[in-house]
């Protein structure tokens, strides 16, 4: 959704999916750290699932879609796309 937790709280309240009195009781500090009292340094999850990356690699390999088209659709540079394949342990379908 690409919004902060705080913004999501108010969007849900304005849509009637979350009661405004409940939204007011949620401490802003808790939203900043995904419900934790303090921030936790955790590694970020990989972008996309391995299965999805395998399907993309197969589509490129079979000529069903161009590398540049995939990079554009995913919002990644071609170098980032190569890193994505490597991070998931998927052989890049072409030299990237």
How would you characterize the overall build of this protein?
This protein is mainly α. It is 54% helix and 0% strand. The longest helix is centred in the middle third of the chain and has 12 residues. It is elongated. The mean pLDDT is 90.
Brief rundown of the structure:
By secondary structure, the chain is mainly alpha-helical.
Mind sketching the topology for me?
Blueprint: H1 5-14, H2 20-25, H3 28-32, H4 50-61, H5 67-74, H6 78-88
Give the topology string: H per helix, E per strand.
Answer: HHHHHH
Q: Strand fraction band? A: under 5%
**Distance between the terminal alpha carbons, to the nearest Å?**
30 Å
Low-confidence stretches: none
The count of DSSP E runs of length 2 or more, i.e. the number of strands, is 0
Q: What is the count of structural domains?
A: 2
The whole-number mean of residue pLDDT values reads 90
What gyration radius follows from the Cα positions, in whole Å?
19 Å
Helix/strand structural class = mainly alpha
Helix content: 40-55%
Gross morphology is elongated
- Largest sheet features: none
Our count of helices gives: 6
Note the main attributes of this structure:
96 residues; mainly alpha; 2 domains; elongated
